Amino acid sequence: MSLQTLNVAPGFMPYMPIAYKDLVEKGPYGRQIKASDIGNFKEVLEEHPMCSGCAMTLFIRLALMGLPTPEHTVILGTAGCGRLALTQASIPFIYGNYCDTNAVASGLKRGLEIRYPDQKKDVVVMAGDGGLADIGFAQVMHSWFRKEKFTTVMLDNEVYGNTGGQDSGMTPKGTILKMSPKGKKFEKTDMMGLAKTAGVAYIARLTATKPSRVLNTIRKAVMVAREVGPSFVQAYTSCNIEYAIPTPKVMIDAREVEADRYGFEEIMTDEARAYLDHIKREEKKA
Amino acid sequence: MTTKTVQAELKVKEPTKAELQRVVTPEHMFFEAPRTKSFLTGSEVAREAVRRSNVDIAIAYPITPQSETMQQVGYLYAEGYLKDYYRGEEEYGVMSAIAGASRSGVRTLTATSGPGLMRGMEVIASWPGGRMPVVMLIMCRVVNAPLSIQPDNIELAYYMNTGGILFHAENHQDYFDFILKAFVIAEKCDVTLPVAVAVDGFFVTHAKGWVEMTPEDIKLPPRDCYHEAVPMMDNENPPARIARDAPVQKSNFISYHMHASWQQEVWAAQERSRRYIDRYMDGLIEVVNPDAEVFIVASGSACSQSREALRQSEELGIKIGLVKVRSLRPFPTRELREALRNAKRIVIPEYNYVGWLNREVRTALYGHVNAEIMDGPRVFGGVSMPTELIMEWLHQS
Question: How many CB atoms sit inside 10 A of residue B46's CB?
Answer without folding.
Answer: 30
